[in-house]
Write a structure and sequence with these properties.
heterodimer, A: alpha/beta, eight-stranded mixed sheet, six-stranded mixed sheet, 8 helices, 28% strand, B: alpha/beta
């Protein structure tokens, strides 16, 4: 009995890092055939996420995602990586999910399948014509990890393979707390000794925000600087959200630490840390009433911080910063007034005469969670409020296509910025 | 400003690639015009260390790009993007006559790539200037591995992910090694084929048939693939290597139920018959022990055993009966099998019979017997357990490294194109949706 051979689907790289482009090609289809490409992932939290695109094969029965136009689905247009960045929880999932990798030592597994016809998103009864599996890794082979629990510093150090010395990065996440490792693992995969630091613990009472002030971060910075495999003069700080405020605070206090450069995403200088983090939260809590709740019961917090931009006493003296700063913000950030803060910071640095250090990237229709590519865009998700310790749904903002562009574009620029300031600015000085 | 040391930055891609993928190595942050040595190091499953190294000089920006730059010496030279893999050799002091083979295809080879100061050929002392680690896989994610012991046959089936149906390949390896050689099968499966790595030489396989493996065994293997629910019954190829290739061409030319869509034979010959048992066929190879030769290192040369190629057609495989496209690969410096001579004779026989349009013959100058998928290291000679004489010998396989590795790379591309063309591209008949 003669049967039709399965279409052939190739997705490369088969085992890539999460920030690598993917190339998907389907051949052996019927010419000018309508098909749907679908990507399915099972998260570590056991939720299914999927993305799909509607295509038509060419005269040779080929669909090439990098070049062809997607006619609909979870993305449209020519989008080589659309099947990853447009991932969303499948219909019927628990609400307000966010896709995050907890265990960086295993990859995300993506099932990429081809289906006959143009399917409108309901794949329950849709059997696939062909399937391939790819792995997406946050960590390159050879990157080692060291659990850091000394001098009260809580974190994980990711070291590239080799003797070093490597440039170092202190990696700071935001008010969601916990020990978030995936970005530090990815930075280490790009050659940086990266310390993912925990400073707000959801479970660990030894990291009590009422005991943590700027000294904690300075101690972490010094730890990294003095590590035998880190070059002491080439240590930068990478912050997102509250982590950006921390980075700006400690960089502006120049007598204590000297970072080589700063990457600050989706944050504000209008958070001054005078005492402890707990004090900062208590202060913010006073303005909790400024939060807006939208028609979906999602919390918009940017109004809490926005008024502080008018009060110099509440702002970090960014005029004191002595190192290059890459500032990244999305203009649809509903969680922090990142764009207003970026503009204000620019004014302050101009007045102080150090604006030549500042590079600002503002992305239209991007939201708050500007993560490494090709993380799915999360417009809103569950969050434990630092004010009430209760679960709320936070509106982060952003539109999928523009937000994903912001992630891809900013990451490329971040890597160039880090390389320029932490690796190549040293050419000619290295002892070899 | 104090002088600080920062290590050079090395980027190797892909970080986790299939073994037949190119690699790209870039090192930056060196001094301009700096002499360096790049060394790759691998610890085999047999716990031997294999290495390769190349001497480079950075450009004015302190960059070395292995894809573009010249290597000035080492285990390879010239512009060789993948030289650090294909020129791997056992490190000095290793046990002699080693062969690098992946036994467990579900784990990768780990390659350690280091940069050293200066142009050195030994004493690669720790620490290097920089290091990267990459994985090289014989299997893509999603490919399943299934032990097969049913319908009277024994082997390992590799199936790509998805519903199929897939084209099938009956993969027949040669003699030597213990267990079933799986790495080429898993690699072919990673390119979209359902592949059965067939065991037809081991005692376990023989014990399933009272010690006698005959043509019927291969018919059963072919039929196993044809009747598999995820394999397309009329798109099955046979790929053979060495003795496996010799058996394959004999089977396909015989009158039996084995009718592959196409045939690939690497480093085989056409002078054995599969009239009786496989053991008889194997012994037939050695019917003229006087033709064994030895080189200056006492390595055994089997090349002459098949020579001269008989002129009497009854002593050879009836290649006139072949009805399917046939890709024939051989190395002209094959010291183990008269594969190149056999290839020429096959071509002449098919020309005389009028079916030479089916034949694509690739004879590679200065390539040896072990034409493996790229970028396997070239093995000129290695240990072999002679199961007939029950003794360990060192066989000379032949080949010069650079040309042999070119043959591996070029023939593999052509094998994959050939298989795709005949098993995937071939006209779709009565599509059933």
């Amino acid at each position: 009995m003669k049967t039709r051979i399965s279409p052939k689907i190739i997705a490369q790289p088969a085992r890539g890092l999460v920030d690598e482009q993917i190339y998907i090609r389907v051949s052996n289809l019927i010419p000018n055939e309508k098909i749907t490409l679908r990507c399915l992932l099972l998260s570590e939290d056991n939720d299914f996420w999927h993305a799909y695109g509607l295509y038509i094969s060419d005269d040779k029965g080929v669909v090439n995602v990098a070049e062809d136009v997607c006619l609909g689905g979870s993305y449209t247009g020519t989008e080589p990586n659309g099947l990853i960045w447009s991932l969303k929880p499948v219909p019927g999932s628990r609400p307000a999910l966010r896709l995050r990798k907890h265990n960086v030592f295993t990859p995300f597994l993506l099932n990429v399948s081809v289906h006959k016809g143009h399917i409108n998103g309901d794949f329950k009864d849709a059997s696939s014509l062909a399937l391939t599996v790819i792995e997406r890794w946050y960590i390159a082979p050879g990157v080692s990890t060291v659990e850091i629990r000394e001098n009260c510093i809580h974190g994980t150090l990711f070291l590239p393979p080799g003797p070093g010395p490597f440039p170092g990065i202190l990696d700071l996440w935001g008010g969601g707390g916990g020990l978030v490792e995936y970005r530090a693992a990815l930075l280490a995969s790009h050659g940086y000794a990266s310390l993912a630091l925990e400073y707000i613990s959801t479970q660990n009472t030894s990291i009590n925000v009422n005991n943590i002030g700027t000294e904690y971060f300075e101690a972490a910075f010094h730890f990294l600087k003095s590590h035998p495999r880190v070059s002491s003069e080439q240590v930068g700080i990478f912050g997102l959200s509250f982590g950006t405020s921390v980075a700006l605070n400690i960089a502006a206090n120049r007598n204590r630490i000297s970072p080589r450069c700063l990457v600050c995403i989706s944050g504000s200088h209008a958070i001054k840390i005078n005492g402890t983090i707990g004090d900062v939260f208590a202060d913010l809590k006073k303005d909790a009433g400024k939060a807006i709740v939208d028609e979906n019961n999602h919390f918009i917090w940017k109004e809490i911080i926005l008024p502080r931009l008018a009060d110099p006493s509440k702002k970090v003296k960014v005029g004191n910063i002595k190192c290059p700063v890459l500032l990244i913000a999305g203009d649809d950030d509903q969680n922090w007034p990142a764009v207003d803060s970026a503009r204000d910071m620019g004014h302050m640095m101009k007045a102080a005469g150090n604006e030549h250090l500042l590079t600002t990237l503002i992305y239209p229709k991007a939201g708050h969670l500007i993560e490494p590519p090709y993380s799915p865009h999360t417009r809103f998700s569950n969050f434990i409020s630092v004010f009430t310790q209760q679960k709320v749904v936070i509106l982060w903002g952003g539109q999928p296509k523009e937000h994903s562009f912001a992630q891809e574009d900013s990451w490329e620029k971040i890597l160039h910025f880090l390389y320029h300031h932490l690796y190549s600015s040293n050419i000619g000085l290295s002892k070899l | 400003m104090e002088t600080t040391t920062i290590c050079p930055k090395m980027t190797v891609k892909p970080t986790r690639g299939l073994v037949d993928e190119d690699i790209a190595i870039v090192i930056s942050g060196l001094s301009p015009k700096q002499a360096i040595t790049i060394r790759s190091l691998l610890n085999s499953e047999d716990k031997d260390f294999w290495h390769a190294y190349g001497h480079y000089v950075s450009d004015d920006n302190g960059v070395v790009n292995v894809v573009e730059d010249e290597c000035f010496g080492g285990t390879y030279n010239g512009r060789e993007p993948t030289g650090l893999i294909w020129s791997l050799k056992p490190v000095p002091g290793s046990r002699p006559a080693l062969r690098l083979r992946k036994v467990d295809v579900l784990t990768p080879f780990i390659l350690n790539i280091s940069v050293y100061k200066g142009h050195i050929s030994k004493c690669f002392e720790e620490p290097p200037l920089a290091r990267a680690i990459i994985e090289r896989w014989y299997i893509a994610p999603g490919v399943s591995r299934v032990d097969v012991k049913e319908k009277g046959i024994r082997g390992t089936l590799f199936i790509p992910p998805g519903p199929g149906p897939f084209p099938g390949i009956l993969d027949m390896w040669g003699g030597g090694g213990s267990g079933i050689t799986e790495y080429r099968s898993s690699l072919l499966a990673s390119h979209g084929y359902a592949v059965l790595a067939l065991d037809f030489l081991s005692s376990q396989a023989k014990s399933m048939h009272s010690g006698n493996i005959t043509e019927k065994y291969f018919e059963a293997a072919f039929e196993f693939l044809q009747s598999h629910p995820r394999i397309c019954s009329d798109r099955i190829s046979i790929c053979g290597f060495s003795f496996g290739a010799s058996v394959a061409v004999a089977l396909v030319a015989n009158e039996n139920s084995i009718n592959p869509r196409c045939l690939v034979c690497v480093s085989g010959c056409h002078i054995i018959q599969v009239k009786n048992t496989i053991d008889d066929a194997l012994e037939g190879f050695f019917r003229h022990p006087g033709k064994l030769k030895y080189d200056e290192s006492n390595h055994v040369i089997w090349h002459g055993l098949c020579l001269p190629i008989p002129t009497d057609e009854s002593e050879k495989v009836k290649v006139r009966n072949l009805k399917c496209p046939f890709l024939l690969v051989a190395g002209s410096d094959d010291q183990n099998m008269a594969a190149a001579e056999s290839a020429e004779d096959i071509e002449n026989m098919m020309k005389a019979a009028g079916n030479e349009h089916l034949l694509t013959k690739l004879v590679y100058p200065m390539a040896g017997h072990l034409i493996d998928p790229p970028y396997s290291p070239h093995i000129r000679s290695s240990n072999f357990f002679d199961s007939i004489k029950k003794q360990r010998v060192v066989l000379l396989y032949g080949g010069s490294t650079k040309e042999h590795c070119f043959a591996q790379e070029d023939s593999w591309k052509k094998i994959l194109d050939f298989l795709h063309h005949h098993l995937y591209d071939a006209e779709i008949i009565s599509p059933k949706l």
